[in-house]
Every structure is written in C-alpha cells, then in structure tokens.
Design a protein that fits this description.
Elements lengths: L9 H13 L4 H18 L5 E5 L3 E5 L13 E3 L2 H9 L10 E3 L13
Parallel strand pairs: 1-3
Antiparallel strand pairs: 1-2, 3-4
Helix pairs in contact: 1-2, 2-3
C-alpha cells in the first residue's frame, strides 16, 4: 500500500515558500513543497481516476471517476516540481504550464490553485 502524503504545518510551508520565492530553495525544499501540495490536491479532489506525477518526488491518484489497479492509469498528468509548485500556488496558469497530460479528466486546472 502506498504511503499517504500529509500536509506540512502552515509555518513550515510558509518558510519553504519564502525560500522558493527568494531563489534559495534546495532540493529538500522542493520535495517538501511538492508533497505538501499533492497532499492538498488529494484532500480537495479525492479519487483514483487521474495520476499526478511529479518525479522524482511523488505521485498521487486523485479526481473522482473510474478506478484503475494495474498498468498506466486512464489519465496521467506529469510535470517538474517547479511547475507543480507554481501551478498549485497560483503563480502559473495551466494554459502556460509545461505539463504532459493525457486521458480523460487530465485537465486539473479546475482544482488549482490550491492555496
């Protein structure tokens, strides 16, 4: 069973965002922010019909709909951590984001931004 992601305490996430905004974030900051924001996405849109991948840090299933158990899911969204963080924080629009998305329900813009 996959380990469920848990959002960070608000103060910790604010500190990470400050480092991201000033350009001093390191890999561990990007990893923590990615997982935090994916956890928020799963809370906002629980389900198993879309897999959102942010390699190498995490992948989650979300959005209500068809369930899959093996192989490639019916909808996949993949992007870099920087892109995911910007989308989830509202500093990048879905239409402008370098995202690989395929399948039904792969446009997750209706759930963004998360904060």
């Amino acid at each position: 069973m996959a380990r469920q992601l848990t959002p960070l305490p608000a103060a910790e996430f604010r500190s990470i965002c400050a480092r991201i905004d000033e350009g001093s974030a390191d890999r561990s900051d990007l990893k923590a922010a990615t997982k935090h924001l994916l956890a928020l996405l799963v809370q906002r849109a629980p389900g198993t019909s879309v897999e959102v991948r942010v390699p190498p840090f995490a992948a989650v299933q979300c959005i209500p709909g068809a369930r899959h158990t093996r192989g490639t899911p019916p909808a996949v969204v993949e992007m870099t951590a920087e892109t995911w963080i910007a989308l989830a924080r509202g500093s990048l629009e879905w239409a402008d984001a370098p995202v690989r998305a395929s399948g039904e329900r792969s446009d997750i813009s209706g759930y963004l931004p998360l904060i």
